[in-house]
Specification:
The chain is of the alpha+beta class. The chain folds into two domains: about 120 residues, Aminotransferase class 4, branched-chain amino acid transferase, N-terminal domain (D-amino Acid Aminotransferase, Chain A, domain 1); about 160 residues, D-amino Acid Aminotransferase, subunit A, domain 2 (D-amino Acid Aminotransferase, Chain A, domain 2). The protein contains nine helices and 15 strands. Strands 7, 8, 9, 10, 11, 12, 13 and 14 form an eight-stranded mixed beta sheet that branches. Strand 13 and strand 14 form a beta hairpin. It is globular, with a radius of gyration of 22 Å. The chain starts with 5 loop residues before the first helix and ends with a strand. Bound molecules: pyridoxal-5'-phosphate. The site of pyridoxal-5'-phosphate has 13 residues, from helix 7 and strand 12.
Length: about 325
C-alpha cells in the first residue's frame, strides 16, 4: 500500500505537546563548554545523532576528571584509562594524548569554571548506511566541562550517606571489562530505584559471587580494626580508589583489594565511597542500620582531609590557564 505523503500524514496527526511537563525547558543545560567536530560550543549546542551507536547500543567509552581551584587532579591517570578503553574497544580518534589534554584544558578555560566536571568520551559513531557492522561506523570524540558535581551533597558529606544494598548484580567482567569505563548502567540504575524505594539515598550492588561490588558512579571501602578493604573484582578501577591506596601508603595504613562480603560491610567500623564526583564520601547507614556508632569515623575523616590537601600538590595537579 502506498504511504501518504509526509505533509498529509503530519496534517492528520494529532498535535503533540512540544515538551513534557517534567522537562519544562528542553533547552536548559548546565553552563559549560563542549568540544565536538573540531568546534568549541555552548553545552546547549552539543548534540549527537540518534543513529550513533553510543546512543543506540551504549557503545562508547568515557572518562571523567575534575578541576578544583583551577587545576586538573591526576589528569594523566584519567588519560591512561581513557586511551586504554579506546584500544580495548578498537576505537580510534584523530587526537593523541597531548591533543586530548589540550582540548580538555580549552573546554575548562572557555567555560571559566574553577571547579569543573570534565568528561572526554568516544562513541562508536554512526555509518551513512546505518550498517550493522561496527567497523563501518565513524568513531566520534567529544569532550565537555560543566560545573563540578558530587555524589553526596554538603549535608550528606557531613553526616554520611544512607545506602541500601540492592540484590542487583553488576554486569560481570566476562561480559564487559570494567576497566573500560562505560555507560552500561542499567544494573546500577535499577539498584538506585531499589534504594529509593527503601528510603536510602544511594545504592551498592553485588558482584556475580554475591559480594559487594560498587555503586552508581563510585567504589566502596570499609575499615575494620584500622585496615581498609575494597572489592577487587567486577568493579571499575576508580582513580579515586587508586588515590585512596596512594594516600594509605603515604599515611602507613593497610589497604587491600579483596572480596568484601555483605556481612563484612555491615560489620565494618567505617564505610566510605569514592568517586571523581565528590572524592571520599562517608557512609553512616546501611539498609536503615547505623554503621558502628553512626558517625563519620576517624580514618574516613583523615583520608578526606588528605585527599583535598593533595589538590594543592603540583605532582598531582595541572593548572588551567584561563583567558
Ligand atoms: N565505579 C563506577 C561504575 C563509576 O562510573 C565510577 C565513576 O564514574 C567509579 C566507580 C569511580 O571512579 P573514579 O574514582 O575514577 O571517578
Amino acid at each position: 500500500m502506498n504511504q501518504p505523503p509526509m505533509s498529509q500524514t503530519m496534517q492528520q496527526a494529532r498535535p503533540l505537546p512540544v515538551v513534557s511537563d517534567r522537562h519544562v525547558d528542553p533547552h536548559a543545560y548546565p553552563d559549560g563548554i563542549a568540544f565536538l567536530d573540531g568546534q568549541y560550543l555552548p553545552m546547549s549546542q552539543a548534540k549527537v545523532s540518534v543513529l550513533d551507536w553510543g546512543f543506540l547500543h551504549s557503545d562508547a567509552t568515557y572518562d571523567t576528571v575534575h578541576v578544583w581551584n583551577g587545576s586538573f587532579f591526576r589528569l594523566d591517570l584519567h588519560l591512561d584509562r581513557f586511551f586504554g578503553g579506546l584500544e580495548k574497544l578498537r576505537m580510534t580518534i584523530p587526537f593523541d594524548r597531548a591533543d586530548v589534554s589540550e582540548i580538555l584544558h580549552n573546554c575548562v578555560a572557555l567555560s571559566g569554571h574553577r571547579a569543573a566536571y570534565v568528561e572526554m568520551l568516544c562513541t562508536r559513531g554512526a555509518s551513512p548506511t546505518f550498517s550493522r557492522d561496527p567497523r563501518q561506523a565513524v568513531n566520534r570524540f567529544m569532550a565537555f566541562a560543566v560545573p563540578f558535581g558530587s555524589v553526596a551533597n554538603p549535608e550528606q558529606l557531613q553526616r554520611g550517606l544512607r545506602v541500601a544494598i540492592s540484590d542487583k548484580v553488576r554486569i560481570p567482567p566476562a561480559s564487559i571489562d570494567p576497566a573500560i569505563k562505560n555507560y552500561h548502567w542499567l544494573d546500577l540504575v535499577r539498584g538506585l530505584y531499589d534504594a529509593y524505594d527503601r528510603g536510602a539515598e544511594t545504592a551498592l550492588i553485588l558482584d556475580f559471587n554475591g559480594n559487594v561490588a560498587e555503586g552508581p558512579g563510585f567504589n566502596v571501602f570499609c575499615v575494620k580494626d584500622g585496615r581498609l578493604s575494597t572489592p577487587a573484582i567486577g568493579v571499575l578501577p576508580g582513580i579515586t580508589r587508586r588515590t585512596v591506596f596512594d594516600l594509605c601508603a603515604e599515611a602507613g595504613l593497610a589497604a587491600t583489594a579483596m572480596d568484601v562480603s555483605v556481612a563484612a560491610l555491615r560489620g565494618a567500623d567505617e564505610v566510605f565511597i569514592t568517586s571523581t564526583a565528590g572524592g571520599i564520601m562517608p557512609v553512616t547507614e546501611i539498609d536503615g542500620t547505623a554503621v558502628a556508632d553512626g558517625k563519620v569515623g576517624p580514618v574516613t575523616s583523615r583520608l578526606m582531609a588528605l585527599y583535598w590537601k593533595k589538590h594543592d600538590d603540583p605532582a598531582w595537579t595541572s593548572e588551567v590557564t584561563y583567558p
